[in-house]
DNA sequence: GCAACTATAATTAGGAG
DNA sequence: CCTCCTAATTATAGTTG
């Protein structure tokens, strides 16, 4: 029997496993929202995320809009 | 009497006034989500938005995390 | 044009398989 | 590690002041 969702304290999720699950769920949620935002309002939007155990940023969308906007994202 | 929220077709909002209202509401929504995501999962996140009638990007957070990550966002 | 409201849609925490 | 479930929380479309 499922318990449904519980309220979440707005602070770092201590348990690594839970934190990782939340990371993936919410990352997808934000990307979905950004995609809808772009379509509904005809706005170019880009999201840059630095995953927990990596210095390599995740950039959305894959072919960043920032390029066509004459903006460069450069690793130093 | 309020009608509550209606379902929205996933396509460009034709009416400028409605589109602008949605733009502001959803922009705040995405930023809130990104902020929560950063706190809950200890992840640096940055959002770049190009408003409809401007070439000047809106960057969140104001003091972009990307700077401390040795990433540069440069207008060409 | 804004802020507040509210009914409804959408997200998601925690669990189960 | 998934994917699915479901109740509860959260976001928000349309309206009103």
Automatic annotation (TrEMBL), chains A, B:
The keyword Transcription applies. CDD domains: MADS_SRF_like (cd00266). SMART domains: MADS. GO terms for cellular component: nucleus. Keywords: DNA-binding, Nucleus, Transcription, Transcription regulation. GO terms for biological process: positive regulation of transcription by RNA polymerase II; regulation of transcription by RNA polymerase II. Residues 3-50 form the MADS-box domain. It comes from the Eukaryota. The keyword Plastid does not apply. GO terms for molecular function: DNA-binding transcription factor activity, RNA polymerase II-specific; protein dimerization activity; RNA polymerase II cis-regulatory region sequence-specific DNA binding. Its main location: nucleus. InterPro entries: MADS-box/MEF2_TF, SRF-like_MADS-box, TF_MADSbox, TF_MADSbox_sf. Transmembrane segments: none annotated. It is found in: Nucleus. This is Putative transcription factor, MADS-box.
């Amino acid at each position: 029997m499922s318990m449904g969702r519980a309220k979440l304290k707005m602070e770092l999720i201590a348990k690594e496993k839970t934190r990782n699950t939340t990371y993936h769920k919410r990352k997808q949620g934000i990307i979905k929202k950004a995609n809808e935002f772009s379509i509904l309002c005809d706005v170019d939007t880009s999201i840059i995320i630095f995953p927990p155990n990596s210095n390599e940023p995740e950039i959305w969308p894959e072919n960043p809009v920032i390029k066509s906007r004459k903006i460069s994202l450069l690793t130093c």
